[in-house]
C-alpha cells in the first residue's frame, strides 16, 4: 500500500470542486464536506475536465490522479467549469456558514492553526500575541506527549501526566478577546477566500447535528498529523486498538485489566482463558517495542503479585514482517531482541492477512487468537490531508518548500507528520517524528514573528518579505525503552552514519531524563516524576475504572 501511495502521488493544487448535479448541490447547501461524501463526487465526474493541465503544462495525466476525491473530480473538469465550480462551492459554503470574518484594517492579523499536536503546540507557544491573534481548531483540547504514552497503558504513568491542556501552552487562547480554541475538525479549506470550514467535534445538544462554521485566516498553519497505516487489511480498524491518543491508552488499560479478571471466572474454558490472556502487538517499530516492554514489566511486577492465579498463563506476542527497530543500529537491534526474548516476549515473523474478532490470520495460514490486539505499523496521510487539493510530496503528505510554505497558494504553511518536502525542493521527506514536528514548529514561529515585524502578517502581505534561512533538520538521535529499566540510545545522525549507540541501564537513565526535561509544563514534569516514584514504591494502579 505504501508503494501504491507513492505511485499515486502527484503534484496537486488547491481548489474545491462543484458540479451542477442536484445531489451534490444539496449536499453542499447542507454544508457537507467533500471528503466525507465520495459518492457525490463520483457521480459528478461526467461533467468535468482536467483543471490542472493548463497550469502545469504537459505532465502525464496519471500524475494528477489522487486519492482525494476533490481531485478525482478536478481531473475531469474543464478549466472554466472547474473555476465556476470552485467559486460556487466557496459561495455556498461561505454564505451558509456563520463564523469569523476576515480581519479588518487596524485589527491584528489572525493566524489559524489546525491541530494541537507537537508541531502546532510548539508554534502556538512561541507566537507573539502582541502581533497576532490566534485561532486554534482541533478535535482535542490538549497535546499528547506521545513518547510516554505507552507507559500509561499499564499504569506506569497516569493519563493526565502525558496530556498538556492547550490553554496552558498558549494562555492567550483562554484569555485574549480575539483568540479562540474551537473543539472542531477542519473539513475543507478555500485558499482563494482564505477561509477554513469546520465541524464541531461533538454533537450540539440533543440533535445529532454537528455545528458547522467557517474561520477566515490571514495565515494558515496546517498541522493535523497523520493516521495509522492499516494497509487495508480486513478487520484491523474494527478489532485492533491503535496507540496514538490518550483514549486509545485508556481503552488498552481497561481491556487488559478486564481480560485479566475475566480469565479468572469459574467455568471459563481453557481455550478462552488462553485467548483472553494473550496480548498481541503488531509492528516492531519503537512504539510496538516500547509497549511490549511496558507489558512485560507489568506482568513481571504486578500481574505476578496481584493476579497470581493466571500469572503463568499471560503471554505477549510481537508480530513483525521484517526486523524490529529497523531504523536503529544493528547492535542495538540485537540487544533489544535478546532482551525482549529474555523478558518472555514471543517474536513471530509474519505478515497479517486478516484480523477477525478474536484471532489474527497470518499469510501462511497460521491463526493467532488474542485477547487484546495493539496495532502499530507506522503512519500515513489522514483522510483529510488526502482530500485537500494542495500539492503533495512523495508519500501523499502536503507538499512544502524549504520555508514550510505550501507553494502555489498564499499564506498557507504545513508542518509535522502531515507535511513533507516537495520533490522539486530536492530534499528528502522527513520522518514522522515528534522532534521533526517540534523543530518545524519552532522554525515557523520565528518566521511568522519575523513577518509580523515586517508588517507582513496580513493576508497577501508577505510577497516582498525577506524570509531568511530555510528550515534545516538535524537528527538528534533516537531512543526507545525496552522494559526492565533498560533502553536504547542511538545518537547517529542517520541510519548509515557513524556515532554513539548504547544500550542498558545507563541508556534508560538518559531516556528518562531526556523525556522528563522535554515534558512541556512543570505541572506535568512533576506528575511524571511522582508517577515513576509511586510505581517504583507501590506498583502500578490496577483498578479498572469505567466501562
Ligand atoms: C505512541 C507514540 C510514541 C511516539 N514516540 C516518539 C518518540 O519517542 N520520539 C519521536 O520523535 N516521535 C515519537 N512519536 C511520533 C510523534 O508523536 C509524531 O511524529 C508527532 O506527534 C507528530 O506531530 P504533529 O504535530 O505533526 O501531529 P500530532 O501530534 O499527531 O497532532 C495532530 C493534531 O491535529 C489534530 N487534527 C487531526 N485532524 C484534524 C482536522 N481535520 N482539523 C483540525 N485538527 C485536526 C489532532 O487532533 C492533533 O491534535 C510517537 C508517536 C506515538 C503515537
From TrEMBL:
Query: Which cellular component, as a GO term, is one annotated location?
Result: peroxisome
Signal peptide: which range, if any?
A: none
- What does this protein need as cofactor? FAD
Read off the InterPro entries from this record: FAD/NAD-bd_sf (IPR036188), FAD/NAD-binding_dom (IPR023753), NDH-2 (IPR045024), NDH2-like_C (IPR054585)
GO MF annotation terms: NADH dehydrogenase (quinone) (non-electrogenic) activity
Task: Give one Pfam family, short name only.
Answer: Pyr_redox_2
Region of interest called Disordered, as start-end residue ranges on this chain? 1-20
| Source superkingdom | Eukaryota
Q: Give the family from UniProt.
A: Belongs to the NADH dehydrogenase family.
Q: By what name is this protein known?
A: NADH:ubiquinone reductase (non-electrogenic)
Q: Species name for this entry? A: Beta vulgaris subsp. vulgaris
Q: What is the lineage of its organism?
A: Eukaryota, Viridiplantae, Streptophyta, Embryophyta, Tracheophyta
Amino acid at each position: 500500500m505504501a508503494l501504491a501511495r507513492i505511485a499515486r502521488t502527484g503534484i496537486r493544487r488547491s481548489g474545491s470542486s462543484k458540479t451542477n448535479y442536484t445531489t451534490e448541490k444539496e449536499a453542499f447547501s447542507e454544508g457537507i464536506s467533500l471528503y466525507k461524501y465520495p459518492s457525490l463526487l463520483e457521480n459528478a465526474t461526467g461533467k468535468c475536465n482536467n483543471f490542472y493541465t493548463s497550469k502545469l503544462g504537459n505532465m502525464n495525466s496519471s500524475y494528477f490522479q489522487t486519492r482525494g476525491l476533490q481531485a478525482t473530480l478536478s481531473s475531469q473538469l474543464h478549466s472554466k467549469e472547474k473555476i465556476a465550480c470552485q467559486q460556487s462551492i466557496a459561495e455556498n459554503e461561505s454564505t451558509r456558514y456563520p463564523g469569523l470574518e476576515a480581519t479588518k484594517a487596524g485589527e491584528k492579523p489572525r493566524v489559524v492553526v489546525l491541530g494541537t499536536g507537537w508541531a502546532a503546540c510548539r508554534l502556538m507557544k512561541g507566537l507573539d500575541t502582541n502581533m497576532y491573534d490566534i485561532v486554534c481548531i482541533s478535535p482535542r483540547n490538549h497535546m499528547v506527549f506521545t513518547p510516554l504514552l505507552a507507559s500509561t497503558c499499564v499504569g506506569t504513568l497516569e493519563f493526565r501526566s502525558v496530556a498538556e491542556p492547550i490553554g496552558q501552552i498558549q494562555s492567550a487562547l483562554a484569555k485574549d478577546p480575539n483568540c479562540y480554541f474551537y473543539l472542531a475538525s477542519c473539513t475543507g479549506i478555500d485558499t482563494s477566500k482564505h477561509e477554513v470550514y469546520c465541524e464541531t467535534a461533538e454533537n450540539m445538544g440533543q440533535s445529532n447535528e454537528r455545528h458547522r462554521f467557517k474561520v477566515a485566516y490571514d495565515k494558515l498553519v496546517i498541522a493535523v498529523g497523520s493516521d495509522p497505516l492499516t494497509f487495508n487489511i480486513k478487520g484491523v480498524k474494527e478489532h485492533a486498538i491503535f496507540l496514538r491518543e490518550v483514549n486509545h491508552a485508556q481503552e488498552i488499560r481497561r481491556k487488559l485489566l478486564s481480560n485479566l479478571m475475566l480469565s479468572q471466572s469459574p467455568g471459563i474454558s481453557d481455550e478462552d482463558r488462553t485467548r483472553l490472556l494473550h496480548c498481541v502487538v503488531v509492528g516492531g517499530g519503537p512504539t510496538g517495542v516500547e509497549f511490549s516492554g511496558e507489558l512485560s514489566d507489568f506482568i513481571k511486577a504486578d500481574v505476578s503479585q496481584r493476579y497470581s492465579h493466571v500469572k503463568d498463563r499471560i503471554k505477549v506476542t510481537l508480530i513483525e514482517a521484517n526486523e524490529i527497530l529497523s531504523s536503529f543500529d544493528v547492535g542495538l537491534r540485537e540487544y533489544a531482541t535478546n532482551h525482549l526474548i529474555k523478558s518472555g516476549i514471543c517474536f513471530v515473523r509474519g505478515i497479517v492477512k486478516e484480523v477477525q474478532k478474536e484471532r489474527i490470520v497470518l499469510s501462511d495460514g497460521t491463526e493467532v487468537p488474542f485477547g487484546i490486539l495493539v496495532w502499530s505499523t507506522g503512519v500515513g496521510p489522514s483522510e483529510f490531508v488526502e482530500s485537500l487539493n494542495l500539492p503533495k510530496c512523495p508519500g501523499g503528505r502536503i507538499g512544502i518548500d524549504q520555508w514550510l510554505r505550501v507553494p502555489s497558494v498564499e499564506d498557507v504553511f504545513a508542518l509535522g507528520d502531515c507535511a513533507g518536502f516537495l520533490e522539486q525542493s530536492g530534499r528528502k521527506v522527513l520522518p514522522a517524528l515528534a522532534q521533526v514536528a517540534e523543530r518545524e514548529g519552532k522554525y515557523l514561529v520565528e518566521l511568522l514573528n519575523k513577518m509580523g515585524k515586517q508588517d507582513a502578517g496580513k493576508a497577501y502581505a508577505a510577497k516582498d518579505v525577506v524570509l531568511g534561512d530555510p528550515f534545516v533538520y538535524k537528527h538528534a538521535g533516537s531512543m526507545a525503552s525496552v522494559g526492565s529499566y533498560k533502553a536504547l540510545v542511538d545518537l547517529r545522525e542517520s541510519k548509515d552514519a557513524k556515532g554513539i549507540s548504547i544500550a542498558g541501564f545507563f541508556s534508560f537513565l538518559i531516556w528518562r531524563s531526556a523525556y522528563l526535561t522535554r515534558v512541556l509544563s512543570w505541572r506535568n514534569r512533576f506528575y511524571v516524576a511522582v508517577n515513576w516514584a509511586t510505581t517504583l514504591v507501590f506498583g502500578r494502579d490496577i483498578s479498572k475504572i469505567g466501562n
